[in-house]
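Lab notebook: predicted structure, single chain.

Context: the supervisor wants predicted structures on file for every construct in the current expression panel, including those that have not yet been purified. This is the next one on the list. No modifications to the sequence; it matches the entry in the shared construct table.
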Amino acid sequence: MFDKLKKLKQLKDLQSALGKERMDVEKNGVTVTINGKIEFENIRLNPELDQDKQEKAVRDCVNEAVKKIQFKVAQRMSQMPGFNF
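Prediction complete. Output recorded below exactly as produced.
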């Protein structure tokens, strides 16, 4: 029982630490910032781009940021004892 409680505490600590992680991705002057909880903290647009290019840049930034933060989360989890992935 104590092992499960210990792992639960480790997961909560990890979740808290990951919430502080940040990932910035920039494409064509459009910047997206995401945290380890997969919450978007900032989206900065480039007013010099037309709507189609801006939408594509936002989409590309979001997709790349999510992939990068998921990879970072997986790396951190794999370093925790008892959570081998």
